[in-house]
Structure formats: C-alpha cells, structure tokens
Amino acid sequence: MASKHRPQRSCVVCREKKDKRMLTRLVLANEKLRIDATGKMNGRGAYLCGNPGCWTSPATGAQLARALRHELSDGDRNYLRQMTPS
Ligand SMILES: [Zn+2]
Fold it and tell me: Which domain covers residue 57, as residue numbers?
C-alpha cells in the first residue's frame, strides 16, 4: 500500500468506515453529549459521519446510547439536532 496509514473509524449509524478526520467525534462531558472538535477529549467516544441522515435517523439515539453507554436526554437530542450537518 502506497498511502500512509490513517486511522479509520466507523459511523455508529451507517457503519461506513472513513478517515477519522471525516467523522465527528461525540463524547460525554459531565454526562452531556458534546462534540469533540479536537478529537482528544477523554472518555468514551462515538463517531458520526457527515451525512445529516445519520444524525437524525430514528436509530441514532439508540446507537449513540449503546456506543457511549449513556441514555440520551432530551437536551442531548436537541443538541444533536442543532449540530446536524447541513
Ligand atoms: Zn453515517
């Protein structure tokens, strides 16, 4: 393989594997869902791709809850809706 190795992660909803930098990392900060813009925040993370459907799918909440081991609150769901890529 000629290309340099780049870390790959899967979107928790569509399961597509992508370059880590193409995905948005979500973490729990003080029990709240937050976007990890630096990719370096501590704690369990889950990745979503840039497809808005993966942010708003009926499966999103359950997949994130499973990946993060955290039941999403109404606030978390609102946050996701606000941060959905357009
Ligand atoms: Zn996706």
Answer: 8-83
Does the pTM of the predicted model rise above 0.70?
yes
Q: Distance from the CA of 36 to the center of ligand 1, in angstroms?
A: 17
In a domain, 1, yes or no: no
In this predicted structure, what is the pLDDT of residue 1? 52
Query: 3 pLDDT exceeds 70?
Result: no
Share of the chain above pLDDT 70, in %: 97
User: What is the number of structural domains in the chain?
Assistant: 1
Residue 1 CA to ligand 1 center (angstroms) comes to: 26
**Integer CA distances (angstroms), 61 to 8, 12, 48, in order:** 22, 10, 11
Tell me, yes or no, whether 2 lies in a domain. no
For residue 58, is it within any domain? yes
Q: Is residue 69 part of a domain?
A: yes
Please give the C-alpha separations between residue 37 and each of 25, 31, 62, in angstroms, as whole numbers: 7, 17, 22
